[in-house]
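Below: protein 1.
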Amino acid sequence: MEETYRELANGQAVNCPVSQTYLPHSMAQTSYSFKSVNGGVKKFGVLALRITSDIVRETTVNDSVRSEKLPLAGKGQFLGLVQLFSVETGELLAIMPDGFIQQTRVGLTSALGAKVLARDDSEVLALIGAGGQARSHFRFMTAVRPIKRVKIFSPNPEHRRAFAAQMERETEIPTEAVESAETAVADCDIVCSATNSSRPVISAKWLQPGMHYNSIREFEMDEAALEKSDVVAIHTRFGGIQHFQPPGIDKDLPGVRREKPRDWNRYPEIQDLLVGKAPRRTSDRQITFFLNNVGTGVQFAAMGYCAYRAAKEKGLGHEIPTDWFLQDIKP
């Protein structure tokens, strides 16, 4: 992933904004959502198209508004795909589910943010969340810094305790489930929120000198963190998702979450820090903030390329005829 961002910084990779299209659903407070994003990396010879076809509902859990995807496909499942194309021939190389790729690409990018912004001696991680994204962030955040202790908070006590026990068994890093987000943040070195909340899950008031803060969604961050932090970097200046609804709808459909308009050009992107085009932390007293604000296509190109290459080397997956997807009529 780091190599991909370096290629992007040098003009050898390409992204486009995320697009999300909605239709009303037959169930109350629910919408159909189709999301797509693409990006390519010349060095790897691939472009990836990631799509999801979701049924989305907004719910309130313990005073927190969440956007929940409902498992209505097949036997209680979801549909998300990464399609990989050759930039030399235009052929379709692979079709793969996006689940593991989706969680991994976000965690890796956040870890790269921590690698260039968090203090080298960071030992205590506060993790807000207990789902798939939190699991990915636990794994990769602890891989880039010498983390010796992790504090976990999520609104559901049973979930956070089970998650803490699972991750301690997996990583052998002492992990504690705590009673509040504020308790988790207190006396830590890295704060990471990895939730699907539509509201802030921490307060910028809790951030102390020397801390590094990572958020995977604009909605879950405290706006004040942007001004309080000494160094701020973002994933992409695209800023947000392009949302499309049927004409004539005055009020957003359930599940539509619009990012706040702002001047994203104020902040350097992750690749700028990796190649030295933007300053990193210069003092152990600084508060740093990486906002992993929205996904990009090059993440799926990088992850898709790695998965495709590994599958070919290990003989995994199913070979299907390329001719199924080709035609003799010019598109």
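Below: protein 2.
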Amino acid sequence: MYLKTLHLKQFRNYQNQKVEFTAAKTILVGNNAQGKSNLLEAVELLATLRSHRMARDRDLIKEGESTAQIHGTLDRIHSHSDLTLTLRRHSRRSVAINGVTVPRQMDFLGVLNAVEFSSLDLELVRGSPEIRRNWLDTLLIQLEPVYAHILHQYHQVLRQRNAFLKRYVNTPEKSLQSELAIWDAQLVTAGTRVIIRRDRAIKRLSPIASAWHASISGASEVLEINYAANIPLEKTSPQELQAAFFAKLQQRAVAELHRGITLVGPHRDEVELIINQTPA
């Protein structure tokens, strides 16, 4: 599978630009601020529906325009695909495959796979745990498009549970036990699905990354990548993991009600990068 053409309309600094990729490798050369990164960002958006530079669709639309569109054609061994992403300044984006609008964006993911690397990726090592979680989630969405739905479900429950905790800050725990138990059950169900998939992805990635790092460092360094959940991962079954999740929530219940925020779950997990038994 390879990207054959890319057509940008009113995207970033492009008004109407079509690019054809005819060679096995393409190198973009040009002065600063001419749109090289913007073109690569468009490919990233088609692959992941995310931009590593901007969070809001309106920031991706050319100044003075109300919409932007990214269209790409893919060639596969036995098939051909057209992908279209339409961004709107004042309403929701939409996606289409072969000219047919796709109701669920998760069905758009995984058609085009891409790996994006930039100088900002140095923050994977130096930055906060949130950056590493976002990186892992973006990877997982390409490997398992259904993960986008799973992650969305978890964040939706997390927002609602946090709103509940904020509303009853410093309220005695016993008076809220029955209602909090409902949110706990939803958080545990959704959160366990996120944890299992993240941990599985890291276990697949770690030996590959370690082998490449050993090759680059001349075998002088040993790289380890671990998924450090704040819930014990030695539990082997989903049921045992859920039980451990519930137990941790009960342990932190008083602190959560005092602070008005959820303190347990995959939104607080870490991806550890270790070189020669020392944090990178």
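The two ends are 35 Å apart (CA to CA).
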